[in-house]
Design a protein that fits this description.
Number of strands: 2
Radius of gyration: 23 Å
Helix content: 55-70%
Order of helices and strands: EEHHHHHHHHHHHHH
Strand order of the largest sheet: 1-2
Structural class: mainly alpha
Distance between the termini: 38 Å
Number of helices: 13
Oligomer: single chain
Strand content: under 5%
Shape: globular
Length: 390
Amino acid sequence: MRLPGTTVEVRGRQVAQFVAGIALAAALIGWMLPAFAQTSWGDIWAVLREVPPHHALGLQVLMVAGLYGYTFVLTGSLPGLTHGRALVLNLCGSSVSKLLPAGGALGLAATYTICRSWGFTRRAVSTSALVSGVWNVLTRILLPVVAILVLLAGAEDLPRTLTDLATAGAATGSALVAAFVGMMVSERVAQAIGRGLDRALRPLLRRRPATASMSLEELVRDLRARVVVVVRDAWWSMSLGMLVFFGLYYVLFVLVMEQTGVDLPLDELFAAYAIGRLLTAVGVTPGGIGVTETATVVALVGWGADPAGASAGVILFSLVTYLMEIPLGAVGWLLWSLSTKTPPPEAGSDEVVVSRRAGGPDGRGPRRRAGRPGRPARTDAPSPAPPPRR
């Protein structure tokens, strides 16, 4: 598949994996979900029909508000991007990722194409994709950790096995987050982690192409250099964006469960929600669809929710947050096609050359700051990372 300025090769194997993933998702939702919940689709549809249409519309508005909250992550990771354009970028990339085979690669290509059409440098776009991706993964890891701690603190009647698993999960998640924070804070920690990965994965790395000359240690150090440039100033806005995004989606989840008659304590609802958000990263099916819904229903029913109500609530939540991003993505592509385009910098340039005309809906975009005579102008783009030490 070709987008302006990019080429992404979609192979037959990727198409087959996509079709197999869709088939598995259909099997999980169509058969395993009601089987695990011990209900039927007739009972589930009966609950869904009781949800008033105007309530469903209100839920959709809250979902869009959550997506707007995520724009703080994108504007923080890509200096100069406006919130309006960040929303368009998110809708376009998400719709492609959810709809097409090799969706992850195509979604990244769409993001690259759109940002380049607005005048951002290649390095700024790739760094933004890296930073926002890391922030997403870390937050999805932290959500279950917080949920586990809340459950352990508030529920004394948890089974011993579940308590042990929860403790192990919290420890693992905390260790992963601590490792990342250590990498960002200390170059020595980054070097130690890189050397450890090199030793652990050396047998696999021998199969790399001969052209792959960068070691994992060098890769980790380069990653740190690129991420630190952005995170140093924008960590708070990106963290705020993730908090608003997942917070509003949790409120949406609670409201959906109320609409379908699920009456559980907020801590148990949060735990089920956190499990679902983590499993969206599972690559077995597109966007983890099917896996997410089945696991969430099992958790809700296990805590005493009505099987039909829990299943209907999970299905409605997925309709609002997952499938509705596809038509919203069409709107995003339309808005991008109507937006003002700016030629990107020439190859090798690290400047963001965007004029006032190239700004977002509010008329502002990446701005170039005037430098002193004889000195290059400062830009909002992150400076290139130093070459790795040998």
